[in-house]
User: Which sequence fits this backbone?
């Protein structure tokens, strides 16, 4: 009897992945998008995005630093994080999670050094103007390189270009491996598709751009000395967001049409899932969070900042919902039970709503800290001055 009870309980176990995991996926994806947008200027030389390249790079850094805290909370026992480094390396060629260990270490380090190369001249100037402690701090941030000659500045530019070029595939891999983990799960009909890494990357570009549409104008209006929002940049980001939405919709279309058509008997489970969630998926995930921002970005509405901010907000929230529906919704599809499973995250404790909000609190704290350390405002103002001089 005891063994029978164990068997029955084992086929309806609680989901192994809770609210921390979609939050982690959202953080890493938005980080990758912010890095790619910063690379538009640093690597591809698109001068239009140069004023926001520095702040985008910093946002990519803080998002990636805060993201693994979701994984630590999901482990229930934080000490288990050591197991990622101590065991399993013999399976590295076939273990996406092991790939993630190295990626999550290498990627933020690369971003930091790229940011240091970008802001080094500003650190040198701040060291000269600061008091004793400030001088020590900013000199350390220059790594002892206080030369402001044209040759030294050109060296910084080349280093930033090289790190940015290396960082692009690294950024794509950091978020792509998360989709790879889901796509490799044969037992889950919603996840098991080679398109999953590409789907995650496409939707990540949407959420990251939406987040920057919210943050950059806020920084410019309330935290910058200029106290002026670049409405042309807001409109450009809205158009960029619309193109990313197009790519996201194409990937989702391919995913759903293949899964619902060629998944053999498993497709009927997906039919049941989308029939159950048809209204909220269609009205919220697609109409509100994707199609409306798409219309905004391709029409004159992009020149109305408040409307663009709304579009950025709903796309950022919509991609989080998509992560939730994919990770949590995919686990509700039954395998051995007659009905769909249900999951409600606990309010307090580990892997709970409070722990997720606490991780957002850490993110906000890191943003404040980075904005205090890095002279992003001076760098942004110089970029705008350079653009104005270039137009004259």
Assistant:
């Amino acid at each position: 009897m005891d063994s029978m009870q164990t068997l029955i309980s084992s086929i309806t176990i609680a989901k192994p992945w809770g609210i921390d995991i979609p939050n982690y996926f959202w953080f890493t994806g938005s980080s990758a998008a912010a890095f790619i947008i910063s690379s538009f200027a640093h690597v591809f030389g698109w001068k239009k995005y140069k004023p926001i390249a520095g702040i985008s790079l910093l946002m990519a850094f803080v998002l990636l630093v805060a993201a693994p805290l979701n994984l630590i909370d999901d482990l229930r026992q934080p000490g288990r994080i050591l197991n990622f480094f101590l065991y399993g390396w013999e399976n590295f060629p076939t273990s996406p999670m092991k790939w993630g260990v190295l990626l999550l270490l290498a990627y933020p380090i690369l971003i930091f050094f790229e940011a240091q190369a970008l802001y080094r001249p500003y650190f040198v100037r701040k060291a000269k103007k600061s008091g004793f402690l400030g001088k020590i701090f900013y000199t350390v941030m220059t790594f002892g390189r206080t030369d402001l000659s044209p040759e030294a500045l050109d060296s910084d530019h080349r280093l930033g270009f090289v790190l940015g070029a290396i960082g692009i595939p690294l950024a794509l891999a950091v978020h792509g491996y998360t989709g790879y983990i889901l796509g490799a799960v044969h037992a889950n009909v919603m996840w098991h598709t080679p398109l999953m890494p590409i789907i995650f990357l496409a939707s990540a570009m949407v959420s990251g751009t939406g987040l920057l549409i919210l943050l950059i104008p806020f920084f410019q209006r309330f935290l910058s000395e200029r106290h002026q929002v670049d409405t042309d940049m807001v409109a450009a980001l809205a158009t960029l967001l619309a193109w990313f939405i197009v790519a996201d919709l194409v990937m989702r279309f391919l995913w759903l049409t293949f899964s619902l058509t060629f998944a053999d008997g498993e497709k009927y489970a997906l039919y049941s899932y989308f029939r159950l969630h048809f209204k909220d998926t269609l009205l919220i995930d697609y109409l509100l969070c994707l199609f409306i921002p798409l219309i905004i970005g391709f029409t004159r509405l992009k020149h109305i900042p408040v409307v663009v901010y709304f579009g950025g907000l709903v796309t950022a929230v919509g991609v989080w919902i998509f992560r939730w529906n994919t990770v949590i919704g995919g686990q509700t599809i039954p395998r051995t039970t007659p009905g769909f499973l249900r999951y409600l995250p606990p309010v307090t404790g580990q892997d709970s709503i409070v722990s997720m909000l606490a991780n957002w609190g850490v993110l906000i704290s890191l943003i404040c800290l980075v904005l205090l350390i890095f002279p992003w405002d001076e760098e942004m103002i110089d970029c705008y001055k350079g653009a104005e001089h270039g137009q004259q």
